[in-house]
Structure formats: structure tokens, C-alpha cells
Design a protein that fits this description.
Elements: H1 6-15, H2 40-43, H3 49-63, H4 66-70, H5 74-88, H6 95-106, E1 122-125, H7 139-150, E2 155-159, E3 164-171, H8 177-193, H9 197-201, E4 206-213, H10 226-231, E5 233-238, E6 247-250, H11 252-261
Parallel strand pairs: 3-4, 4-5
Antiparallel strand pairs: 1-2, 2-3, 5-6
Length: about 260
């Protein structure tokens, strides 16, 4: 498939045309039609190699110009969110990557407490830093570029209002021992960087981890220290059948309950 731009995706959504075969979409179609060569198999819960190629093709177009996506109409955004809700609901090897894309594109629309209400802060896509080098010549770009060259966190959010850098880790299932170790390593590395020039120029004084996962109930929460767990933000993602979008639920209180109950 040839490259597609975010503006082309927007045009097709507005015109109600399938992105892969240009067929007129039905009322319950989203971005691609139900033909087997388009999204037919996905509607039956199957992520075929063809569907995966289509999804990658669309994701590339959106993420290459995510600033344009931010300015899409609510109707167009909702169509894209519906698209993501369907692909994230299917168990697949790339499911975690799809969640990264969704979070990056629609970060400002999510129910996350730490968002900068003035919207002066920025989310950075760092999970594919070798494939997608961090661009920009300003101090914030240089800082994120440095972090991405040293650690493989999924997303970085710098909230200028509360002087905090958040690093985001996504898990398609639950939290395992490896994930616990990863969070500790990343937190330790970034915390030690706080006195560095780039952090001081941006007046970043705090670091907080965010973990977004599918299921908190069987996670290895007991592996954390109480201090670290108090500092972490925990969200569980869900794709409700009655709502064509991915929803995040704040699970910090439940996780703390699990931790202290088993102490």
C-alpha cells in the first residue's frame, strides 16, 4: 500500500468512503468497509495479515501528522476512535502498539487527572524512537530525544504547569515482574537526571510513572515499595461494547487497596 496522509484519511471519513476500496460506507462502518479484503475479518474478531497491513497503513498516516488530527472535527475524531476501539478489542501481537497510537493521538481527550488544563504541555511518542527519531531544536525536544536514546518508555508527557515529567508504560494484559523492574529502572534513571541542564532549563522538578494496562487484579503490585506505589498513576483501559471508544479508568485506589490488604 502507498503512503496515505492524515488529510486524505479525513477526506475519506467526511465523504464516507472506504479507505482501502473507496466503496461508500454503511452507517455502522468506520473508516473501512465490511468486505473481507478490507475489515470483514476484523469484525469477526480476526486480525488477519491483510487487516494488519491496513491498520498499519492508517496508523502511519495518522501519527505522521498528529497535529492535523488534533484539529479534526469531533465527528471525524469519533470515527477514528471507533476504528481504534475495534482493533484494540482484538487480541493480536501488535495490540499494545495500537494502544500507544490511540493514547498519543487522543491524549488531551482522555480522562487523566494530570493533564495541563491550559494545554501548554505536550505528549511525546517515544516507543519507536529508532524508527521515529524525536525531531525539533528546542529544549524540550532535546530532553525527550536524550531520554528516548537511553530508555524505551512508550510515551513521555511533560506538564509545565506542575513541573512534572510523566513517563507512560502500556501493558496489553497485566503487570508482570519484568514490568515492575522496568518501571523502577526508568524512574531511577530519569530521577537522577533532574539536576541536569535540560531539566533545569525547563524547570522540571518531579518524575512520575504512569502505567496503563488491561487488568489490575493479577498484577504484581506487592513487588513495589509502598512509597513507589504511592507515586505511580494506574489506569485500566476498556473498550465498552456500548461506546465506540477506548476508555481509561483510574485504578490507583483499587491498586493501593490490593497492596495494603495483602501486607
Amino acid at each position: 500500500m502507498s503512503l496515505i496522509s492524515a488529510s486524505q484519511i479525513e477526506e475519506n471519513i467526511i465523504a464516507r468512503r472506504c479507505l482501502t476500496c473507496a466503496t461508500t460506507l454503511q452507517l455502522d462502518d468506520y473508516i473501512c468497509c465490511k468486505q473481507q479484503m478490507c475489515f470483514g475479518k476484523l469484525l469477526n474478531g480476526v486480525m488477519s495479515s491483510q487487516t494488519e497491513r491496513i491498520v498499519t497503513y492508517i496508523n502511519e498516516g495518522l501519527i505522521n501528522d498528529h497535529y492535523a488530527v488534533k484539529n479534526f472535527s469531533e465527528s471525524t475524531k469519533n470515527s477514528i476512535k471507533s476504528f481504534f476501539s475495534k482493533i484494540i478489542s482484538v487480541e493480536a501481537s501488535l495490540q499494545e502498539s495500537y494502544i500507544h497510537y490511540f493514547l498519543y493521538l487522543f491524549w488531551d481527550d482522555l480522562n487523566i487527572k494530570i493533564l495541563d488544563k491550559n494545554k501548554n504541555s505536550k505528549i511525546w511518542f517515544t516507543s519507536q524512537s529508532k524508527k521515529r527519531p524525536i525531531s525539533g531544536s528546542d529544549t524540550e525536544s532535546a530532553l525527550v530525544r536524550h531520554l528516548a536514546s537511553q530508555i524505551e518508555t512508550d510515551l513521555v508527557y511533560i506538564n509545565k504547569q506542575n513541573e512534572t515529567l510523566y513517563f507512560v508504560e502500556v501493558k496489553r494484559d497485566t503487570l508482570c515482574d519484568r514490568g515492575v523492574g522496568q518501571l523502577y529502572r526508568y524512574y531511577d534513571f530519569i530521577s537522577k537526571q533532574l539536576p541536569a541542564t535540560l531539566f533545569r532549563q525547563l524547570n522540571i522538578n518531579y518524575v512520575k510513572p504512569i502505567i496503563i494496562l488491561k487488568n489490575i487484579s493479577s498484577g504484581q503490585w506487592k513487588s513495589f515499595t509502598s512509597h513507589f506505589l504511592e507515586n505511580i498513576l494506574v489506569y485500566e483501559f476498556e473498550v465498552p461494547k456500548q461506546d465506540d471508544s477506548v476508555v481509561l479508568h483510574d485504578r490507583k485506589a483499587q491498586v493501593l487497596g490490593l497492596f495494603y490488604r495483602s501486607s
